[in-house]
Amino acid sequence: MRPLYLLLGSNLGDRVSFLQEAFDRLSGIFGESGQKSSLYETAAWGLENQPAFLNQALLFQTDLPPDQVLAHTQQIEQDLGRERKERWGARVIDIDILLYGNTILETQNLTIPHPHLHQRRFTLAPLAELSPSFVHPVLKKTIAQLLADCPDPLEVTLMC
C-alpha cells in the first residue's frame, strides 16, 4: 500500500457538499480510513475572474495503479457534474492527483507528482496539514519546506 494524496477543489454551487460527496465516493473506492485536511479558501488561480475556491487535501492508502486512480477520480468528477469547458475555469468539483508514494510518472494523461504542486499555496497549505514531513520525490524537499518557499502570492484562508 502506498500513500495517495489528492486535492479537492470546488468554486460553484454548494462547495462544502461537493467536497464531502467527493470524499465519500473516494472513501468507497480507497477505504474508509482516508484522512482529510481542513477546508481552505483561496482566490481562483490561473483564471482569476471567477468565484473563490474551497480546497481540501486527502490521504488514502492504495495499491491501485495510477491510471486506475485517474479513471476513478475523473468518473467521480463527471458523476458530480463537472463540465470541462476551459482550462482553470469554474467547476463544481476538481480532483487532482498530487502524489502517489514516491512514484514519478509522466504519461500523456497523467504526471505524478503533480507538476505545479510546488507553485500553488492552495495545494501546499492543506497538504502540509496532513503530511508536512513528506518528501517530494523529485524536488527532495518536505511539503513544509515547499510551502515555506512557495512563490504563490494568493492568500489561503483556513475555513474549518
From TrEMBL:
InterPro entries: Hppk, Hppk_sf. Signal peptide: none annotated. Keywords: ATP-binding, Folate biosynthesis, Kinase, Nucleotide-binding, Transferase. One of its GO terms (biological process) is folic acid biosynthetic process. It comes from the Bacteria. The keyword ATP-binding applies. Pathway: Cofactor biosynthesis; tetrahydrofolate biosynthesis; 2-amino-4-hydroxy-6-hydroxymethyl-7,8-dihydropteridine diphosphate from 7,8-dihydroneopterin triphosphate: step 4/4. PROSITE patterns: HPPK. Residues 87-98 form the 7,8-dihydro-6-hydroxymethylpterin-pyrophosphokinase domain. Coiled coil: none annotated. Its EC number is 2.7.6.3. GO terms for molecular function: 2-amino-4-hydroxy-6-hydroxymethyldihydropteridine diphosphokinase activity; ATP binding; kinase activity. Catalyzes the transfer of pyrophosphate from adenosine triphosphate (ATP) to 6-hydroxymethyl-7,8-dihydropterin, an enzymatic step in folate biosynthesis pathway. Belongs to the HPPK family. This is 2-amino-4-hydroxy-6-hydroxymethyldihydropteridine pyrophosphokinase. It comes from Nibribacter ruber. The gene is folK.
